[in-house]
Amino acid sequence: MSFPEDPSALMRAALAGNDDAYRRLLLHVAAWLRRVVGRGLAAAGRPHADGEDIVQETLLAMHLKRETWDTTQPLEPWLRAIARHKLVDHLRRRGFTDHVDIDDHAGTLAAPGGGEEGASTDAQQMLAALPERQRTIVEAISIEGRSAREVGAALGLSEGAVRVTLHRALKALARVYRGEKA
Question: Of the candidates 94, 111, 139, which is a domain's last residue?
Fold first, then answer.
């Protein structure tokens, strides 16, 4: 975090009853949240118009749940998790999803030469555009049918990290398919 003061120390002082520390923490956290939420909305292709609502919801959740923060841990990951959940909740309420039903596009997915061999070659070329780790994860999960947990164990990654990498790889593949820069 780019705080002028240590946010974890401010939160500890606030939990001990220091109102001035809590006021300073809220000012710094609000500014930081505006940047974090703005980036999240931009990544989802959404306007920044509702950003302040998400910031306020996050600050309220931080206030209501402040006793659940582990004072031996840094504050930023805890705050970032709250902000992420509030952003996701906001996007869901607005009907945002990244899901595309493949059946709706089945006619447009056929290879130009018609036939599985051409489609396989196209898929291999598209996969080759991905960084090695993303390609490995896509192949293991989407082609080999392995679970995120299995892939994570094999690569030394958490299941969550595998899912995030898979999601990013699939978005990159979609851009490659549309002819955009990966």
Answer: 94
Alpha helices in 17-158 (DSSP H): 19-43, 51-65, 75-93, 116-128, 132-138, 148-155
User: What is the pTM for the complete model shown?
Assistant: 0.51
Range of the domain at 37: 7-94
Answer whether 100's CB lies under 8 Å from 143's CB: no
Taking the C-alpha atoms of residue 83 and residue 97, their distance in angstroms, rounded to an integer, is: 18
Residue 88 neighbours by CB under 8 Å, 6+ apart = none
Contact 15, 83 (CB under 8 A): no
- Give the span between the Cα atoms of 96 and 145, in whole angstroms: 27
For 70-129, the pLDDT digits (tens) are 999 999 999 999 999 999 888 888 776 555 555 555 555 444 444 444 455 677 888 888
